[in-house]
Amino acid sequence: MQGDQASGLERPDAGDKVTRTSGSATPGDHALNIRDRKFCRDGRPVRWWHSGDPVATAWYNSVSASLPRGEKFFIQVMKYYDDKVPPRMAAELRAFTRQESNHAREHVAFNNLAQSHGYDIESIDKGIEEMLALTKGRPVEFNLAITIALEHFAAAISHCLLTDPRYLDGVNEEIADMWRWHSVEEIEHKGITYDVWLHATRDWSAWKRYRVRALLALLITRRYFKNRVRDALGLMRQDGITGLRARWLLFRHLWISPGMMRRMFFDWAKILLPGFHPWKQDDRALIRKFDSPYADAVMPAE
């Protein structure tokens, strides 16, 4: 996999101390790397590409359908700060932008495959557009806090995908690799939005910063998750799975077996704690494992 990795940020020289924003827990030698990869351009995965399971397929298709427009929103928010942060942070912002642009591109391609099987994906994208329309005219710090919340949710999911093989068990290897690739970069850049927040709100009181961040994390994550469930049920309906049976099957998948939402809940809830920072959970071992050409020889994070 290492051969697919394009040049990203240069890492600091040995002994070169990188100054981070006050309150940041991002490791001083951490850098973002651009892995410009393409997936699913040849061939056509089966309709129920996730282990032949329409429920798991519907959930991941719902998440994927939400990503292109969401990634573009994150890019727009972060670009505002490009000339308002220290040079090192600005370089990380540019790397973040390239990573997110690549993610959006690949999920557009993947969503097109879902559409080729007859799924209505456009209605999901329309729902994301309507949700993000509510951010127009809001203070930029408001939209930055939304970005932090959704990036944290993505990082929590990514940690699960990379540490527990059950979540991608039985998935076409190229599709599984796309989700792993996306997950690695979500973890890699999980701290940059929060570091920008610390810099942008450095004149705020600690209480105001916490109140805005925690409240928006609760509101936007709840709304995003609720909409993903709604859209997954809509996709299941297109496969003839409806009513209470559909709700039970999706609930069981998310909360019981394999139960990703149950397993990630406490990691997600850390954003509600005072003193939160994404890098207080140091999972760089997952990045090294993905990037290593000898992945089996690298110890997992858990």
UniProtKB/TrEMBL annotation:
Biased segments, Basic and acidic residues type: 10-19
Disordered: annotated segments: 1-31
InterPro entries, sorted: UCP07580
Domain of life (superkingdom): Bacteria
Annotated transmembrane regions: none
Database matches in PANTHER family: METAL-DEPENDENT HYDROLASE (PTHR39456:SF1)
Protein name: Metal-dependent hydrolase
